Amino acid sequence: MTESKNIVLTGIRPTGALHIGHLVGSLYQNVEIQNQGDYERMYGMIADAQGLTDNFDNPDKVHENVMEVALDMLAVGYDPNKTALFIQSEVSELTELTFYYMNLVTVARLQRNPTVKTEILQKEKFNGGVPVGFFTYPVSQAADITAFNANIVPVGEDQLPMLEQTVEIVHKFNSVYGDTLVMPRAVVPKSRIAARLPGTDGNAKMSKSLNNCIYLKDSADDVAAKVKTMFTDPNHLRVEDPGNTTENPVFLYISVFAKPEHFAAFLPEYSGYDELAAHYERGGLGDVKVKKFLNSVLQETLRPIREKREEFARDIDKVVDILREGTKVARVAAEETVKRVKHAMKLNYFD
After folding, report:
1. How far apart are the C-alpha atoms of 272 and 261, rounded to whole Å?
2. Measuring CA to CA, how many Å separate 29 from each of 24, 155, 190, 264, 307?
């Protein structure tokens, strides 16, 4: 199958409110791709069905967070005039494609998928056994990507094994049934730090269960309180002590979020991050001053997002309409792909 122009698919699992890790790890990049306009169509999927694979016993959590995620996406700049925002479970063709693709991948291959292996080890609730739905998550993701002929898929580095699985499934399908599916490629965040922003407690990952996140919907007071209690360098006990910046969440956040205009406005005695970090590393710079700067940066960054989010939240019916219209667009595209796939597989008995 020939590709005329780029088609982009982004996806977010609605298992919790989105935080600043999502912002720099994927949302900023996705909005940038959207606004560049170098594509024929862009889709923004809220992957509620996949969210149920490890929350099957808590459907209310996923249901409630669909709207929370939609508000966050719109607040950071997803434009429904440029991106079709849709709910995964409302496009049943994705389930049908998943079923067909299951014949193209072995159990052993799924067991070797690094992302699946890591997630299984981290999920205590799986002690009683891994649900088949979660185990076949990579197959479902392949259905999502191919249903819309997406050849550009922005993902975090931890999702690269999933995309590799999709590439294998596409190659297998095309080799068996003929050139039918579009081969995707991953687009990863430019900054490795942004891709894996640590939690406020210094933990390697932001997690709602660890209570170490700064959410996009947090109030100004909430943000300030969280920054004030952030983990820094435990050996930096006095202002004059040399400090570590490489594993210090406060400095990692500053390196990601602080722009030249922030330094000019809130910390003009430093030319930029390098000078600030050098001062901390040699000693003579206290954590309170650095945290105060970070708070100012995050307040400036999150204020317009929070205000836009509140504006959308005041008209939920409009948000539902946006999701409904985007889902219609997504369903039409997925229907065409299913027809093409069934034709290739000789499952078109009544054509």
Report:
1. 9
2. 7, 10, 9, 25, 21
Q: Which amino acid makes up residue 283?
A: G
CB 317 within 8 A of CB 246: no
The number of beta carbons lying within 10 Å of the beta carbon of residue 238 is: 8
Angle at 148 between CA 142 and CA 154, to 5 degrees: 65
- Which residue shows structure tokens 């259905």? 143
> Coil, strand, or helix at residue 86?
strand
Residues 152 and 291 in one domain: no
The answer to whether the CB of 330 falls within 8 A of the CB of 338 is: no
Contacts of 72 (CB under 8 A, 6+ apart): 17, 18, 22, 27, 216, 217, 309
What was the pLDDT predicted at 2? 42
Q: Which residue has the tokens 């080799």?
A: 175
* Pairwise CA distance, residues 250 & 273, whole Å: 12
Q: Tell me what pLDDT residue 116 has.
A: 80
CB 16 within 8 A of CB 25: no
Distance of CA 302 to the CA centre of its chain: 17
What pLDDT score does 1 carry? 47
Q: Are 256 and 197 in contact (CB under 8 A)?
A: yes
Q: How far apart are CA 34 and CA 40, in angstroms?
A: 11
Q: Which domain holds residue 279?
A: 218-309
Lookup: tokens for 285 = 């710079």
Determine if the pTM surpasses 0.70: yes
- Regarding whether 132 and 271 lie in a shared domain, the answer is no
Query: At 256, is the secondary structure helix, strand, or coil?
Result: helix
Which pLDDT does position 193 carry in this prediction?
74
Residue type, 319: V
Query: Is 351 contained in some domain?
Result: no
Mean pLDDT for each consecutive 10-residue tract of the chain (351 residues)?
74 92 93 93 96 86 94 98 98 98 94 80 68 90 97 88 93 97 90 81 83 96 97 94 95 96 97 97 96 98 97 97 98 98 96 83
Note the pLDDT of residue 15. 87
Residues 12 and 49 in one domain: yes
Tokens of 327: 């889902």
